[in-house]
Amino acid sequence: MPRVCVFVSFLLLLVSVQSRHFMKFSYEELTEDVAKDSVPMAVLVKPLNDNVLRFKQAWRLGSFSWSDCGKPSKIMSLTNLVVSPDPIEEGATAQVTVEGVMDETVSSPIEADVKLEYNTRIFGWKTVPCTQGVGSCDYPNICSKLPSGTCPIKKGKYHMTKSFPVPTSPPSGDYRVTVNLKSQGTWLACFHINAAISN
Fold this sequence. Notes:
Blueprint: H1 6-15, H2 27-35, E1 58-68, E2 76-84, E3 88-89, E4 93-102, E5 111-119, E6 125-127, E7 138-139, E8 156-165, E9 173-183, E10 186-198
Antiparallel strand pairs: 1-3, 1-10, 2-4, 4-8, 5-6, 5-7, 5-9, 9-10
């Protein structure tokens, strides 16, 4: 049974790095969200075809940081998180290296509550809505999205480096992501990620 590191999977769910739909909202959905002041006007760019928003192909990940915001009673701890290379370019290969500790074995279902925010500068931090599984979304059971045999996640230390194709870049700006995890009513962990992206 493969010991796939759950922490990498959580990160991949946050940024959808394996999805070709990363940060590609429909024009109608995005303009509606902007009208509600839930995402920044800077996100809007001229669609290049069929109402699909596209962004620049080269981007830099700067001032990247993370923290473990878990309670003392947490079961899951993140000890290291590294993303490379810098700059990151669409079509290239990036790597995520993650280390973590599971204090107890955790069974399915594992719920993930993800909050993604973007700094609009003028209006401050705004929540990016959940669109096609990307953004501020609630995932009722991330085990269903992981390779077979991953859950239950056994007690122990985990270290994993995973390579993946780089998706279309998001708009430039400051982002922050907060992930809360729980299983069958038991609170597991909290992770907080800050990143600045420039095109």
